[in-house]
TrEMBL record:
PROSITE patterns named among the record's database cross-references: RT_POL (PS50878)
Organism: Rubroshorea leprosula
Highest taxon above the source species: Eukaryota
Biased composition (Basic and acidic residues): 179-188
SUPFAM superfamilies recorded: DNA/RNA polymerases (SSF56672)
Alphabetized Pfam families for the sequence: RVT_1, zf-RVT
Name this polypeptide is given: Reverse transcriptase domain-containing protein
Length: 1149
C-alpha cells in the first residue's frame, strides 16, 4: 500500500544488498514482524554497520575466440576459477545460440578490472582467447521453491545444446572426449598486475560428451534448495526473438520473471531519498543465493517490485485482520483483500494519484480537442454518469459493531399520516428564492398559489404515504455546476448542486423534518452537524482544549484532519439502507428512503443547457433536504468503527484532565478530525480504519486536502507519519471549520491578513448609537463578550454535550455549580477559557454583569447548593447567615438534601452541630421563613434563568445592551436625530455627521495626520486665503458665505452663521417649531455642504473652477429631488420649489 512503497532494495556489492525505508521505526517493525517471508528472499538480515563492506563482487566475463571443440560449462568453469568462484553461464552461452561471444558470471575478490589475453594449446594448435570484464554487473535473487513457481525444466532441456547430437561432427574436427590442451600465456591488457591464474603453466581443457546444464539447474545447484528468479530488462526484451547482440538471451529470464509478476511488467517506482543522516538501517546478505543478469539494473528493480507486491499483500491482510477485530464481516474475504490491493497508492507529495477522465481524454473539456458545445455536453454527461455509477460487489458489513437504535414510538411518528398543517409548514420552510428544477417552479410561486394547488400537493403526499411509490419523473433533477475555486480548469473544480422538482422537494422536506427529530438519539456526540443543540463552534472549542492540554502537560499527541473526496457523490445506497436497518428504522421508512434515492434521474446544466438524462446508482444530492441527515447516518458508521477501536484498545485517544474522558475524533458532515496519542500503532490503526470505512461506505479519502499535525512530538515524527499516511504535514495553528485552531486568538497574526485602516473618526465614536452621536457600529469587544457569555448560558443547561464534558473533565467537576468557575478567576487554561472566566469582570463600569443576570429557579434541588448558590431571594445564604453556616451540619449539601417531601409537600429539615443560642435561634427562624417561600418541585430539573430576557433564555442582544449602556445629552440627542433625517441620502447624512465632528479630510486635518507636509499647502482650495478646515470651508469661506446668503433670500429668512459647524447646525433647527420647515431646511444644509465639497474636489482633481450661479441651482435641484423622492406624495413641481420652498413643504403628505 502507499505507506509501504517507501521500502527499496539496492545493491552494495557482492552478495550484500541494502534495504532501507524513509521511516526508520517502520523498517525495524518490518524486519521483526516479517522475518519469515523475508527469509524467502535473504539468507541473513542484520543492521548496517560501517565495517559491513562487500569483500567480493560479481562480474560478468565476456570471452572471445573460444573454439567449438572446447565449448562447454566445464571449460568456462575452469577459466572462471582463475579469478574467483564460477557461478553460471548466461542463457545464450549455455544454449549455444551464438559462438562468437561467451559470457559467464563469477564471484571474485579482485577489485581491479579484468582484461586478459590467453593462449590455449589444443592438439598442438594454439588459440588466442580474450577475457574481458563487462562494465555493469547486477545480481539476481534466488527464492524458495514454495515462493515462486518452478522453472519449466522440460522447455529448457529442449533448448539445451546437446553434445550427443553433435558427437560425430566434433570427432571429425579432431576433438575427442577428455582431450586436453595447454595455456601458453596470459596477459592483462589494462593493468600491470597479473590477475590470471597459472600464468605460463599448462592449462588443461576437457571436452565432455552429453548435455550441458541449463542456467536454472546451475543456479539451483549453487543455491541449495532454492530456485532462481531470473528477470530481464526492457532492452533485453527487445532482443528476445532475434538474440541479444551483447550475447545474452532473455527468453528464459522473462519466463521466470512471470513467476512473481504474473505475466505483467511493473513500471519503475520513483523513490524519495532517505532523510536524516542518510545512514542505511539494514544490510542483507544473500550468502551465495545469487543468479546473474546482463547489463542494466532490472534485477534490483524487479526485486523491489516483487518485495513491494509482497508488502502490499501483507498490508492488505493486516488491515483486514484489524477490521475483523473491530467487528467488520464479509461473505467473501478474498474479494475484500483484492479490493484493498486495488486501492491506489498516493504519490509522495500527498496528492491523490487518480485518473482524470473527462470525455475519454482530460483535454476534451476546456482543451484544444474540444470541437463544440455538443461535445462538451456529452463529455460532462459521461463524466458524471461514471461518477454516479456504483460497482456491483458485496461490500463488507459492520455486523460486529453496536449502534444506538430508535424505539417503536419514534418509528410510529416517522410513518404517521402527514397532516395538512405539517405539509404547509414544510412548504413554508423552503426558501422562496432557490433556483427551480426541471419543472420550472420555485417556492415563491407555490406559496403565492397555495390555495389553488394545495389539494394537488396534499394528494401527492398522501398517495406516497399510502403506496410508498413516486410517480415516474417526479424525482428527476438538474445538476448545476458551481465553481469551487476562483479559476476552474477542470471538471473536478466544480461542485455539483442538485435542482429538484418542487413536489419532490416538499416530500423530501417532510421526511427530513421527521428524521431530524429522532437523529439525536442515534447519532454519537462526536458529530456536530445538523443536530439540534449542537453547534459548529463546539468542535472548535474541543479542538482548542485538546491542543492546549497537550501543550501544557506535554502530552505527545497528533491531530489528523481528514477530508473526503466528493463525499456526497460517492456514498453507497446499500450502506445507507444498512445503517437505517442497524439503527432500528422500520422496513416502511427504509423503503421510502430507497424510493427517493433509486428513482433519481439527472441531467447536467452546461451553460444553462441540460444534457440528456441518465440514471444514477450511488451518491446523495447536494440540494436535497434529505441529504444532510442521510450523510449523518453514513458518518455514524465511521463513529462506530472508532468506538470499537477504542473499546478494544486498538486506538488510544487523548485523555483530558485527570478524569476518564478520552477524545478521539470530531465529525462535522464530511470534515473529520482525529485526536490520538503520538504512536505508530495509532497511525496504523487510523490508516486501517479509514481504508476499511472506504470499502464499507464507498467514500474515499482526499489525501490531497488531509493533513497531520503534531503536539509535543519530536522533530521529524510528524513528517514521517505524513509520509506513511500519504498526506500533508500541517502546522499549528490550522483552520478547522473555517476558524483558526491551536493558536493564541488574542494575537493579530492569528487573524491575518487584516487591512490597515486610517480612521477619520475614532472607533469609540462610531460605536456609539446614532442618537448619541455615533454610527451605531457594534463595539466588537463588547459584542464578543456578549457572544462568549452564551457559553455560560449553555453550561447552565447542557451537561451531556461532548464540549461540556471536556470542560468539566479538564477544569474540574463542579456538579452543576458552574457559577463557582465565574467567581474563582484564578484558574488557568486555554486563552479561550481564561476569557470566559474574566467575563464577569466586564469592561469598565460593567463589573458583575454576568452574575447579576443569572438566577436559579429551583426544581428538585439536585444542582443547587443550599448555602452558596443565590437561589433564595437572589442572595447567598452563607453570606447572610454566616453564624448559622458555621454550625450547620450540611455546609456542602444541595437543597434536596436539606429536607424531604411528605404527602406532596416539601418540608425543610435544618440541623446544627450544637444547640443554638437565643440570638442564633432568631436568625434560624428568619432563615426558615425565607426558604419556605421558595417552592421546591421534586421531579423537575433546576434551571438557570437569564433575567433580562422575557423567555428567561440567555440572548446575545440583551447582554450587548447591558454592556453598552450609554449616557446622552438631550441637546445633542435631538441634533443627531436630525442628522439621520430619512429625507437625506445615507452617504450625504454620513458626510454631515463627519462635518459636525470635524473629521472630513480637509487640508488642516490632513496636515495633522502628516499627509500634507508644507504649511503653504493648507490654504483653502476655493478662496486660497485661510487654512482649510470644516468650519472655514462651509461657513467662513467667501464662496460659502455667498451661498448661505442666497439660500436665505430664497427662503425668505435671516441666517446667522456661527464659528463651528455643530453650533450652526443646532441653531438652524431652532429657527422654527414647525417640523416640516425644519426638515426642509435640514435638506438645504446638507445640500449646501455636499455641493461645496463636491465643487472643491472637482477643482482639485479635475481643475474645474467654481460657478456660483450653477452651484446655487445645483443646491436647489438636489434639495428638491431628495424631498420629492423620499417624502412620498408631494403636490408641487420644480418651479413651485424654486419660487416658494417653504409653502411647498406644507403640501407634502
Amino acid at each position: 500500500m502507499e505507506g509501504h512503497f517507501s521500502y527499496r532494495i539496492r545493491a552494495i556489492g557482492g552478495r550484500l544488498v541494502l534495504m532501507d525505508c524513509e521511516d526508520k521505526e517502520e523498517l525495524k517493525v518490518l524486519v521483526k514482524s516479517a522475518s519469515e517471508w523475508l527469509g524467502q528472499w535473504f539468507e541473513k538480515v542484520c543492521p548496517w554497520t560501517p565495517d559491513l563492506v562487500a569483500k567480493e563482487r560479481f562480474v560478468w566475463i565476456r570471452c572471445q575466440g573460444v573454439p567449438l571443440n572446447i565449448w562447454g560449462p566445464k571449460f568456462f568453469a575452469s577459466m572462471g576459477c582463475s579469478w574467483g568462484k564460477f557461478i553460471c553461464l548466461d542463457d545464450s552461452t549455455s544454449h549455444r545460440r551464438r559462438f562468437d561471444i561467451a559470457r559467464f558470471l563469477i564471484s571474485t575478490p579482485i577489485m581491479n578490472t579484468i582484461s586478459v589475453m590467453r593462449q590455449i594449446k589444443i592438439d598442438e594448435s594454439v588459440y588466442k582467447l580474450k577475457f574481458t570484464e563487462e562494465e555493469f554487473t547486477n545480481i539476481f535473487f534466488s527464492l524458495k521453491q514454495d515462493f515462486i513457481p518452478h522453472f519449466n525444466s522440460d522447455s529448457e532441456e529442449q533448448e539445451s545444446w546437446s553434445m550427443d547430437s553433435e558427437k560425430e561432427d566434433c570427432a571429425s574436427k579432431g576433438a575427442g572426449a577428455e582431450e586436453q590442451g595447454k595455456d601458453v600465456s596470459a596477459k592483462n591488457e589494462d593493468d600491470d598486475d597479473d590477475v590470471a591464474c597459472n600464468k605460463g603453466e599448462p592449462y588443461e581443457v576437457f571436452l565432455r560428451n552429453g548435455c550441458s546444464k541449463s542456467k536454472s539447474e546451475k543456479v539451483k545447484e549453487h543455491s541449495g534448495e532454492r530456485n532462481a528468479a531470473i528477470f530481464c530488462s526492457e532492452e533485453e526484451q527487445q532482443h528476445e526473438e532475434q538474440g541479444d547482440p551483447n550475447g545474452q538471451d532473455c527468453a528464459s529470464a522473462r519466463k521466470t520473471g512471470e513467476g512473481i509478476q504474473s505475466g505483467k511488467r511493473c513500471e519503475r517506482q520513483k523513490m524519495k531519498p532517505v532523510r536524516g543522516t542518510g545512514v542505511p538501517e539494514f544490510s542483507v546478505s544473500l550468502d551465495g543465493k545469487v543468479a546473474g543478469e546482463s547489463v542494466g539494473d532490472s534485477g534490483i528493480q524487479n526485486c523491489n517490485r516483487a518485495l513491494r507486491k509482497q508488502l502490499q499483500n501483507q498490508l492488505a491482510k493486516d488491515i483486514w485482520d484489524l477490521a475483523k477485530r473491530l467487528g467488520v464481516t464479509a461473505e467473501n474475504e478474498e474479494e475484500i483483500l483484492q479490493k484493498f490491493e486495488e486501492m491506489k497508492g498516493r504519490d509522495r507529495q500527498g496528492k491523490v494519484d487518480m485518473v482524470k477522465r473527462v470525455v475519454d481524454d482530460a483535454k476534451k473539456i476546456g482543451g484544444e480537442q474540444c470541437r463544440g458545445v455538443n461535445e462538451i455536453k456529452e463529455g460532462v454527461k459521461n463524466y458524471f454518469k461514471e461518477l454516479f455509477s456504483e460497482e456491483e460487489w458485496q461490500r463488507p458489513k459492520l455486523d460486529g459493531i453496536s449502534f444506538k437504535q430508535i424505539d417503536k414510538s419514534d418509528n410510529d411518528s416517522l410513518t404517521a399520516t402527514f397532516s395538512k398543517e405539517e405539509i404547509k409548514n414544510a412548504v413554508w420552510d423552503c426558501d422562496s428564492s432557490k433556483s427551480p428544477g426541471p419543472d420550472g417552479f420555485n417556492f415563491r410561486f407555490i406559496k403565492a398559489m397555495w390555495e389553488e394547488i394545495k389539494q394537488d400537493v396534499i394528494g401527492f403526499v398522501q398517495e406516497f404515504h399510502e403506496h410508498g411509490k413516486l410517480v415516474r419523473g417526479s424525482n428527476s433533477s438538474f445538476i448545476a455546476l458551481i465553481p469551487k475555486v476562483e479559476n476552474p480548469h477542470k471538471i473536478e473544480d466544480y461542485r455539483a448542486i442538485s435542482l429538484s422538482r418542487v413536489m419532490y422537494k416538499i416530500l423530501a422536506k417532510l421526511l427530513a423534518n421527521r428524521l431530524r427529530k429522532v437523529l439525536e438519539k442515534i447519532i454519537g456526540e462526536q458529530q456536530m452537524a445538523f443536530i439540534e443543540g449542537r453547534q459548529l463552534m463546539d468542535g472548535v472549542v474541543i479542538a482548542n482544549e485538546v491542543i492546549d492540554e497537550g501543550k501544557r502537560k506535554r502530552k505527545k499527541s497528533f491531530l489528523f484532519k481528514v477530508d473526503f473526496e466528493k463525499a456526497y457523490d460517492k456514498v453507497s445506497w446499500d450502506f445507507i439502507d444498512y445503517m437505517l436497518m442497524r439503527t432500528g428504522f422500520t422496513v416502511t421508512w427504509r423503503n421510502w428512503i430507497k424510493e427517493c434515492l433509486q428513482l433519481s434521474m439527472v441531467s447536467i446544466l452546461v451553460n444553462g443547457s441540460p444534457t440528456q438524462q441518465f440514471p444514477v446508482s450511488k451518491g446523495i444530492r447536494q440540494g436535497d433536504p434529505l441529504s444532510p441527515f442521510l450523510f449523518l447516518l453514513v458518518a455514524e458508521g465511521l463513529n462506530g468503527l472508532m468506538q470499537s477501536a477504542i473499546e478494544k484498545n486498538i486506538f488510544r485517544g487523548v485523555r483530558i484532565g485527570n478524569g476518564n474522558l478520552s477524545v478521539s475524533h470530531l465529525q462535522f458532515a464530511n470534515d473529520t478530525l482525529f485526536f490520538g496519542e503520538a504512536s505508530e500503532e495509532n497511525i496504523q490503526a487510523i490508516k486501517s480504519i479509514m481504508k476499511t470505512f472506504e470499502l464499507v461506505s464507498g467514500l474515499k479519502i482526499n489525501f490531497g486536502k488531509s493533513q497531520i499535525m503534531g503536539v509535543g512530538t519530536e522533530e521529524g515524527w510528524k513528517e514521517r507519519m505524513a509520509y506513511r499516511l500519504c498526506c500533508k504535514a500541517g502546522e499549528l495553528p490550522f483552520k478547522y471549520l473555517g476558524t483558526p485552531v491551536g493558536g493564541n486568538h488574542r494575537r493579530i497574526a492569528m487573524w491575518q491578513p487584516l487591512p490597515t485602516r486610517v480612521p477619520d473618526v475614532s472607533l469609540q465614536n462610531t460605536q456609539r448609537k446614532k442618537e448619541c452621536g455615533g454610527l451605531g457600529v457594534k463595539d466588537l469587544k463588547k459584542f464578543n463578550m456578549a457572544l462568549l457569555g452564551k457559553w455560560w448560558g449553555r453550561l447552565a443547561k447542557e451537561e451531556e454535550g461532548l464540549w461540556s464534558k471536556v470542560i468539566s473533565s479538564k477544569y474540574g467537576e463542579n456538579g452543576g455549580h458552574w457559577l463557582d468557575w465565574v467567581r474563582d478567576r484564578s484558574g488557568g487554561g486555554s486563552t479561550w477559557w481564561r476569557d470566559i472566566l474574566n467575563l464577569n469582570a466586564g469592561d469598565g463600569g460593567n463589573a458583575g454583569w454576568l452574575l447579576e443576570g443569572f438566577r436559579i429557579k429551583v426544581g428538585e434541588g439536585k444542582r443547587v447548593s443550599f448555602w452558596w448558590d443565590e437561589w433564595c431571594r437572589e442572595i447567598c445564604l452563607a453570606n447572610k447567615f454566616p453564624r448559622l453556616y458555621t454550625w450547620s451540619t450540611g455546609k456542602d449539601k444541595e437543597c434536596f438534601q436539606m429536607g424531604r417531601a411528605l404527602n406532596g409537600t416539601w418540608r425543610w429539615n435544618l440541623t446544627w452541630r450544637r444547640t443554638l443560642h437565643q440570638w442564633e435561634d432568631e436568625a434560624a427562624t428568619e432563615l426558615q421563613k425565607m426558604i419556605e417561600k421558595v417552592k421546591m418541585s421534586p421531579g423537575s430539573a433546576d434551571k438557570w434563568e437569564w433575567t433580562h430576557s422575557t423567555d428567561r433564555e440567555y440572548s446575545t442582544a440583551t447582554a450587548y445592551a447591558i454592556l453598552t449602556k450609554q449616557r446622552r445629552e438631550e441637546e445633542e440627542a435631538e441634533m443627531y436625530k436630525r442628522v439621520w433625517n430619512p429625507s437625506i441620502p445615507t452617504k450625504v447624512a454620513a458626510f454631515n455627521w463627519k462635518v459636525l465632528l470635524d473629521r472630513i479630510p480637509a487640508k488642516l486635518n490632513l496636515f495633522k495626520r502628516g499627509v500634507i507636509k508644507e504649511r503653504e499647502e493648507r490654504k483653502c482650495v476655493l478662496c486660497e486665503e485661510e487654512e482649510e478646515d470644516s468650519s472655514h470651508l462651509f461657513l467662513k469661506c467667501k464662496i460659502a458665505k455667498w451661498l448661505w446668503r442666497a439660500c436665505a433670500n430664497w427662503w425668505g429668512i435671516k441666517v446667522e452663521l456661527q464659528n463651528e459647524c455643530k453650533r450652526t447646525f443646532q441653531l438652524f433647527g431652532a429657527w422654527t417649531k414647525k417640523s416640516h420647515k425644519r426638515e426642509g431646511w435640514d435638506c438645504i444644509w446638507n445640500a449646501v455642504i455636499w455641493s461645496v465639497w463636491m465643487a472643491r474636489n472637482k477643482k482639485i482633481f479635475d481643475s474645474v473652477e467654481v460657478n456660483l450661479i450653477k452651484l446655487l441651482e445645483l443646491i436647489q435641484l438636489r434639495s428638491f429631488t431628495w424631498i420629492k423622492v423620499r417624502k412620498g406624495k408631494c403636490y408641487f413641481n420644480l418651479s413651485d420649489w424654486l419660487i416658494n420652498p417653504a409653502s411647498c413643504l406644507t403640501r407634502v403628505k
